[in-house]
Amino acid sequence: xxxxxxxxxxxxxxxxxxxxxxxxxxxxxxxxxxxxxxxxxxxxxxxxxxxxxxxxxxxxxxxxxxxxxxxxxxxxxxxxxxxxxxxxxxxxxxxxxxxxxxxxxxxxxxxxxxxxxxxxxxxxxxxxxxxxxxxxxxxxxxxxxxxxxxxxxxxxxxxxxxxxxxxxxxxxxxxxxxxxxxxxxxxxxxxxxxxxxxxxxxxxxxxxxxxxxxxxxxxxxxxxxxxxxxxxxxxxxxxxxxxxxxxxxxxxxxxxxxxxxxxxxxxxxxxxxxxxxxxxxxxxxxxxxxxxxxxxxxxxxxxxxxxxxxxxxxxxxxxxxxxxxxxxxxxxxxxxxxxxxxxxxxxxxxxxxxxxxxxxxxxxxxxxxxxxxxxxxxxxxxxxxxxxxxxxxxxxxxxxxxxxxxxxxxxxxxxxxxxxxxxxxxxxxxxxxxxxxxxxxxxxxxxxxxxxxxxxxxxxxxxxxxxxxxxxxxxxxxxxxxxxxxxxxxxxxxxxxxxxxxxxxxxxxxxxxxxxxxxxxxxxxxxxxxxxxxxxxxxxxxxxxxxxxxxxxxxxxxxxxxxxxxxxxxxxxxxxxxxxxxxxxxxxxxxxxxxxxxxxxxxxxxxxxxxxxxxxxxxxxxxxxxxxxxxxxxxxxxxxxxx
Length: 643
Fold this sequence. Notes:
Layout (H helix, E strand, L loop, with lengths): L2 E8 L6 E4 L4 E6 L5 H11 L17 E7 L5 E7 L5 E4 L3 H5 L10 H6 L5 E4 L12 H9 L6 E3 L6 E3 L2 H8 E2 L19 H12 L12 H26 L4 H84 L31 H104 L12 H17 L8 E4 L4 E4 L2 E2 L5 H22 L6 E5 L25 H10 L6 E6 L13 E4 L15 H4 L2
Parallel strand pairs: 3-15, 3-16, 10-14, 14-15
Antiparallel strand pairs: 1-2, 1-4, 4-5, 5-6, 6-7, 8-9, 11-12, 12-13
Helix pairs in contact: 7-9, 8-9, 10-11
């Protein structure tokens, strides 16, 4: 929740016109024409009003108005605007930090200060125009107040939306002396198109905006689009009717049925052809695998036969060697006498032995016998080898024969695929393509006929829609629970202000106003209207504060108790047909004195609160023309008007 900390006007050669406010209650009291209502107009002006709605002679020499806000975190936002109009400047510093406390010489004009390269100033548009997204007062103050920068509100019954601005929210926190006694709604300004203000009120009560709404298109746009669609359909229908002009629907159906039968027959032939090709392809794979296996076996057997032939040749070589050894032993005995290489004796005759010499002893008989035995063994192995070779040759011949058969079958399969099935498939497919093309042509004509009929129906529907009035959208009313809670809050405020305990407040949604004990607010005199308007503003602030709903956190009430106060030295008081009950005023001040300090209520009124409440209410009195020494005459210092 935020608050107004200071309002100041400056002008070259003028004392600053300044007033400061505290948290909680603040009361500015005094005579008429002392500048109280002018304060509310200044706040309105700085927050984006097109012009200052109230001009006073005392302020003629002032140039600039300053408005300082502080939020719950004690952050500062200062807004500056020339009294001649133009955009708004924003600072994140207090007024004193920007211009100092010297009240005799005001700062230079705004343009010169901007040109002095003050990098801590922001230039804000007073309000955005059209689709502009430039920074404006709303985009700066809403985040400072703790509100979302962009809040979407429905602005009409068609569902179009707009951005919530500080100007739309103004009636709920700034109530001037005219609005507070109005017979109209305290929430709505009474201008044309008040939907956005109603939705603003709903947003405050619920915290929910209208960002999810889908707007209804304008009648002119819808009608133009429907007419364009109708004309487009007419353009689409024309060539369809031209193509169908020489055709007859009955003949097309008969031809399509005949072609369907032919397509079915040709499709089945293609399926059979494909099945046969698939079968042959599968068989070819099997035969090819068999061929590869046979050829592999032949190669393996050839390798084994080669090794076996080499082994047989080895056996023959061994037999020849053994035959040579056997023959050699026969001739050994016929050799000439030789001497023993050990002792030199003749080897012929008696046995010749050397016991001390270890080594083999040979005789021709033994050599012959051994060679014969070894030869017999090799001949046995050779016989087995010959049997094995014969078996391998037989097996090789079998595999070779199988390979030849597989190769022949592969050639036959390839011939069937290439010379029989492929040509048949091509011929059948060509016939099928031709028939399908004819069917597509007939089906296209049938589709054109169906499409033309559908487009004619759509065209008729569009013509009907063009003539129909636009449907009105229905929108949900205000949340009844929220309005009930607000009414209870208003009842609590009124009880604090001397209404009876059984006071009953109802919200009249048709007028966006309240009934008190069954009597509408507008039916009261202006005094009661002002008090009840103030009660609504205070209750809404309390409601939002206690429930965490969006609200700036402060309200300014101008003349909630009376419109005219008897000034000092005056003997007559202007009549007020709506004068309030005597007990309301003291109860009002007592209630105001106990306001939550985190809410700020600024009351600008001719009536003065009791002296004992002055400190609690931060009372500031503008004494007017009869001001005594030490008293403040008004918002504008004396020197400004008596230079």
